[in-house]
Amino acid sequence: MIESLTMPATAGINPILFPKPAPGNQGTVTVLCGPNGGGKSFILKTLVSLLNDDDEDNTLPARGWVLHKTGEAANFYRARHHATTMRSAGILGRTRAGSTIKETQPEKYARLIIFGALLASLPQLPKFDRHRWMVEPIYRQRQIGAVGAVDEEQGYWFGMGAPSFVSTFNSAVQGRLGLRVVKDGLELVLSQGEGASSPYPNWSDGQKSLFTILAVTEMLRPEVFVFDEIENFLHPALVSVLVQHLKQHCRQTILSTHHPHLVFGTIIDTVYYVERSERPGDLPQRLLKYHSQPAVQRRISLLSDDRSKLASLYRLFDVKDAALLATGAMVLDALDLEVHAALSGHFECGAVGAKSSVYVDRQSEQIGQLIRSFSPTPNVVLDWGAGIGRSLAELAKRVSVVPTDHHSWILYDPDPANEAPLARLAAAHDTVSVVHDRSSLTGIEAGVFLLTNVLHVLDPSAWCEAIEDGWNAIRHSGRGIILITEIYPLLAAESRAIPIPPNWVVGLFRELGFKATIRHFSSHGTESYCVAVSQPPSFLYSRDAILNIVVAHWEALKTQLIGEYEGMGHKLSMGDHQRLLNSAFGLARITSCLRAIESSTDRSSGKSVPTAI
Questions:
Q1: N or C: which end of the chain has fewer CB atoms below 10 A?
Q2: Which burial class, exposed, middle or buried, applies to 79 when counting CB atoms under 10 A from its CB (0-12, 13-18, 19+)?
Q3: CATH value at residue 438
Q4: What does the record list as coiled-coil region(s) (predicted)?
């Protein structure tokens, strides 16, 4: 691998240091950016020339370039004339296959390896020998014929045994890679669904470039991969796919670019800005030979943070782009205002009503099915923490659920602000009533004590109240159940909410003496769950004992969230960011509640409690 490159007539960062991956980790990616003519491509070409030099010290004294490598040999690959190479990477002619191809012909040799790996995964060639394929031209021609007769309408699709780059490519382009036998040999094809397919010559340049780089790097596995402007032909999402692939299959990747997506990418390890440090002086009297010319004056800067990256990339714009930059500034100002408004209210917990759709949402439908499957008695559903009545309103969309099953609903929510919406909902149904205060729940017996998407917003004291009220509601019934439904992780981060895993709920209720089981189901693209709590104990612990048990479980959940938060690492997707916010807000909420309980306990025991100033 490469350690550093020292250059002549270079100010700023010199030598350039290339990060090396730690044992067992993914490879590293170094990016050179800057204006045209600054020297990015020249540095890459010189780097490859030095890598290819047999001189033990890898030096070119006349030019002043010095390359330092680790002790092992550097197996490298640099695509030359990539636009030409990629246009033929998916075609293997019979004549070409029948000729002798050596490792000193990197593009042709790579194509041979790629097709050999692809053909080995075809069921039509069960005894395919990859070694013979690489060394015997006659064997290659025979295997091409063994795939099938010449038929441009017959496709052969690569399956489970294909190299991993095939699935990466299929996912990136939303298609299926295969091949067909044509008159001149083999030709890759891409199925695009609904009967549409494209032979390799008809692929877009982006598809060809993506396939070529994915295939070459996986099959040749170069230790050092050098590429000039790898983003050409590709939109940003495919650039990300490609860079992640390079980190998995190459120990070191060195790229040049003008693209902000690569400069600001979170999976890029090091970024250098390369520029000419002075303008051309007097014209030369004689045109010197290349190796006799003085070195061009350059400056190289390390862009170590977003501010330096933004400042450097800004210089690549022209004054004529002022309108673009001004528009960008206006968009940024508008976005700041929007983000500020979102931060002021988006993360707040709030009761949510039924959706406007005529269809029952997935979670509510599951609740209805569970109620019917348990056949609880009496036929009373006590919806504790009903919010503004979403569960009942959703289930009422299916006429058979509420009237036919003859369930009476009692709605209760600890927040007085939700009384009016609940009262309006009760007025629309003869079998629905509203309880306005917790004391009125005394003596109510229910077949179902429902806790839907409410536990994650309760503090430990409210948890104790819900447990006590649930036990009181079902303890006299032989078939009463407590149904707890939650989404985990939460669909959106809430500042006063805690993402509650199902095993945590089960463990808590089992410790209190209940029987508890879990049922999982998919909802809103995430995992929902239902915990069915039954067989209540003949007696319930005191409030203080219940609180101690709840707090102990909260402490365990706090430890779990700390582990998830610390283990997040670099974020690669919006889903990762969402889970990070869930963990961060949940951790903050648990810590705040536990401190409040600790402070309250200290006061009641007479301990000195610090007073906030």
A1: C
A2: buried
A3: 3.40.50.150
A4: none
